[in-house]
Design a protein that fits this description.
The protein is of the alpha+beta class. Helix content is about 25%, strand content about 25%. It has 6 helices and 12 strands. The longest helix has 17 residues. It starts with 8 loop residues before the first strand and ends with a strand. About 40% of the residues are buried. Bound molecules: biotinyl-5-AMP. The site of biotinyl-5-AMP has 29 residues, from helix 1, strand 3, strand 6 and strand 7.
């Protein structure tokens, strides 16, 4: 097996959040490549203060510490590397399941009907630069993949019914979490290399575009200062979503995107 930077894999039976853990490690100067995997999170984080749900021992809950030497405008491509590596890994454990799954910009893996299989949370801490002298600032990227939970829709709490799906439901059988993790880290190794060059980043953006079901879809984009609707037409070379509104073309750097209906 080729050498990988992700060899320091720290496993937790229970922890509040693997992202919180690695951000603290980053502040203390931990190098790129540290991985935290939890059987259970007591305070799993989503974006914007939301929570990530998973019962103990069923799903993949993993975070990676990256230190890409790129500008802040491109750092969200770290999320793209993780989304693509997760798709690669699903393709290794079950190629036909992978064909059912796409990326919903910017941070979800969804199956054909739009139910969410996985969510990704990237968190930066630019203040910790000084603590880790000489190292590029950290980006901690965590992904929760619904591997074996829910086994059926009956397992879901009412608020996730119709919104969440597991790999087990798509495959039709339980899935080995460790095999998935192993394939994921192998693929991530080859993907993060692309963060370091202009061509690599363009390749990531292109591949994101080819696997992104948001493109061609009527979307509502919720921003901190309001929302607008349009048709998602593409991904910019630095990974942002391009939305045509009729009067104009807008590039969305960050925001919540709701798929309103299939493309026009
Ligand atoms: C996300 O946020 O989708 C990012 C989730 C990242 C979780 C990983 S687990 C390892 C690492 N450590 C952490 O502490 N976090 C990361 P967002 O787009 O805000 O979506 C959150 C929303 O998804 C919630 O408000 C629910 O509506 C829904 N949700 C929660 N748990 C879910 C699940 N297991 N499957 C599908 N949807 C879920």
């Amino acid at each position: 097996m080729p050498k990988t930077r992700f060899v320091d894999v720290r496993r937790f039976e229970s922890i509040d959040s693997t992202n919180r853990y690695l951000l603290d490690e980053a502040r203390a100067g931990a190098p790129e490549g540290v991985v935290a995997v939890a059987d259970h999170q007591t305070a799993g984080r989503g974006r914007l203060g939301r929570t990530w749900e998973a019962p103990p021992g069923a799903n993949l809950l993993v975070s990676m510490l990256l230190r890409p030497a790129i500008g802040s405008g491109e750092r969200h491509l770290a999320t793209t590397t993780v989304a693509l590596a997760a798709l690669d890994a699903i393709g290794v454990v079950d190629p036909s399941a992978a064909r059912e799954i796409s990326i919903k910009w910017p941070n979800d893996l969804v199956e054909r009907s739009g139910r969410k299989l996985a969510g990704i949370l990237a968190e930066s801490d630019l203040v910790s630069v000084g603590a880790a002298e000489g190292l590029p600032p950290p980006v901690v990227v965590g992904i929760g993949i619904n591997v074996n939970w829910p086994a059926t829709d009956a397992d879901l709490p009412p608020e996730l019914l119709g919104l969440a799906v597991s790999l087990r439901q798509i495959v039709g059988d339980p899935v080995d979490r460790d095999a998935l993790l192993h394939a994921f880290l192998r693929s991530l190794e080859s993907r993060v290399v692309d963060l370091d060059s202009l061509e690599g980043r363009a390749r990531l953006a292109e591949e994101l575009a080819s696997r992104c079901s948001t493109i061609g879809t009527r979307v509502r984009v919720d921003l901190s200062d309001g929302s607008f609707e349009g048709t998602a037409t593409g991904i910019s070379p630095d990974g942002h979503l391009v939305v045509a509104t009729g009067e104009a073309t807008r590039t969305v750097v960050a925001g919540d995107v709701v798929h309103v209906r299939p493309g026009l």
